[in-house]
Amino acid sequence: MGLITQLVTFPLAPVRGTAWVVDQLVLAAEREYYDPTPVRDQLAQLEKDLLAGRISEDTFDRREDELLDQLEQIMAERQRLGLSDHDAGRHHR
Predict the structure, then answer these.
(1) Rounded Cα distance, 91 and 28, in Å
(2) Is 56 left (phi over 0), alpha (psi -120 to 50) or beta?
(3) Closest to 74 measured CA to CA, from 32, 35, 28
(4) What are the counts of helices (DSSP H) followed by strands (DSSP E) for the chain?
(5) Range list of β-strands (E), 31-87
(6) Is residue 40 within 8 Å of residue 71, measured between CB atoms?
(7) CB neighbours of residue 88 within 10 Å
(8) Cβ(49)–Cβ(56) under 8 Å?
(9) Which of 7, 51, 57, 88 has the most C-beta neighbours closer than 10 Å?
(10) Average pLDDT of the segment spanning 75-86
């Protein structure tokens, strides 16, 4: 940007700063919302419940299908948003 452009757009600096903050908040919320870690944890607990006899095979199959569908949706959305798997799980540790 040239000096003239900077001087003319200087009054908009707070707006640009606010927009950046909002963008960062949205990105953080999306990372947390589309974090696959809780679904993976639920799958692990589901398997433990099956092995311990706390749930039936039918309940396990139905719930596993639901969780795998949810995980697939999360991973597709993460890919669409350009979020890496490296970002996953940061908020839960």
Answers:
(1) 10
(2) beta
(3) 35
(4) 4, 0
(5) none
(6) yes
(7) 19
(8) no
(9) 88
(10) 86
Residue closest to 60 by CA, chosen among 73, 77, 47: 47
The CA-CA-CA angle for residues 47, 73, 52, to 5°, reads 5
- DSSP tag of 34: T
Q: Which of 44, 36, 41 is nearest to 77 (CA)?
A: 36
CB 32 within 8 A of CB 91: yes
Side chain identity at residue 11, one-letter code:
P
More confident residue, 39 or 90: 39
Task: Kindly state the average pLDDT of the residues 26-40.
Answer: 92
Share of the chain above pLDDT 70, in %: 88
Supply the pLDDT for residue 4.
79
On the CB side of 15, CA atoms within 13 Å amount to 4
Predicted TM-score (pTM) of this structure? 0.66
Please answer whether residues 88 and 35 qualify as being in contact, where contact means their C-beta atoms are separated by less than 8 angstroms.
yes
Predicted local confidence at residue 1, as pLDDT? 59
